[in-house]
Amino acid sequence: MGLIFLTLAAYMVLATKLQPLSQPREMPVSRVDVTPHPRQYLLGGIVIAITVALYVVFW
């Protein structure tokens, strides 16, 4: 797997050196709101507590 990664990385470097872009490509800016939900930590804690309780009951 590491050999394939190194081969692909070498190919990308070689392709960039032989045919560089005429101008740098701009990455698109996403306008999606990614602020976390206010209760995400509470709900995550509840899920973890239920998982622990199930382990305790069925172990």
Lay out the secondary structure.
Blueprint (H helix, E strand, L loop, with lengths): L1 H17 L21 H19 L1
Describe the structure.
- The chain is an all-alpha fold.
- The chain has 2 helices and no strands.
- The longest helix has 19 residues, at 40-58.
- The protein is elongated, with a radius of gyration of 24 Å.
Order of helices and strands: HH
Structural class: mainly alpha
Strand content bin:
under 5%
Helicity, in percent?
55-70%
Per DSSP, the total helix count is: 2
Mean pLDDT: 95
Our Rg estimate from Cα atoms comes to 24 Å
The low-confidence runs, each spanning 5 or more residues with pLDDT under 50, are none
Principal-axis shape: elongated
Quick recap:
This protein is mostly helical.
